[in-house]
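Morning!

This is the sequence you dropped in the shared folder:
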Amino acid sequence: MKSALLSCYILTKNSERRLAEVLHSVQMVADEILIVDSGSTDSTIKIAQNFHCKILHRPFDNFRDQRTFAEEQCTHDWVLALDSDEIASPALQKKIQSLKGASFKSGDEANVDGYAIKRDWFFINHPVRNFYPVRTPEFIVRLFNRKKISHRNSRIIHEQVDTRGATISVINESIHHHSCDSLQDLYAKLPVYAKLSAQDLHHKGVKSSWAKRNAYPWLIWFRWHILYKGFLDGQPGIILGKYTRDTIQKKYEILDKISRQSTSLDARIKS
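The structure's back. Tokens below.
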């Protein structure tokens, strides 16, 4: 049986922190590595060039459209989608090589369209039980046939592929997601994620309120830090608990601002 070919795409912007490790982890399993960069000013592009990646540039609007663009630019039908802080473990590398050799057929499942891969999360190099809005470990579809599965119909943030009508198998060998290595890295994400989440809620017709801005963040903190046992992760867990609360509060503050602006615009149009 002829071995299947695989494209791997990675979204980047100022991703020098982990990019070399990520690229090293996939260079032996991917037949093509595609970088879609949204304006890096650090050494991201130089690192990608050192690994002989195909580099494309696209201004960032949201994660869904960035991923959809990347998938459409891949040469091969089978795609491995990674973030610039996600490292394929040695065990996962071997598993993907094995699947390629079998043309991505798994046992008796002759028509697999995609694979949900185990993903372990790390914060400041510590494994954590949750990282809002994800409880870990999780299984996420990151290896798939792009002709059958894509991000096209996903929401714009915390995006996931559309698997309706697709056959999905599971890979227990893991991706190691090193989301942040410092408090600064963590809080640099907050404005972007909060804004996109607020835009998503506004699009769905959700409204902000005093309770959502002030009480609800503490309820979500209690769920993730206490009920989901984030406190067992020690200092990293305490930091992530505060980040969860701050993210929710910021999201609804932005949603309130968007709603006010929309209402004001509608009033001017009607007058």
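Headline: The two ends are 69 Å apart (CA to CA).

More detail when I'm at my desk.
O.
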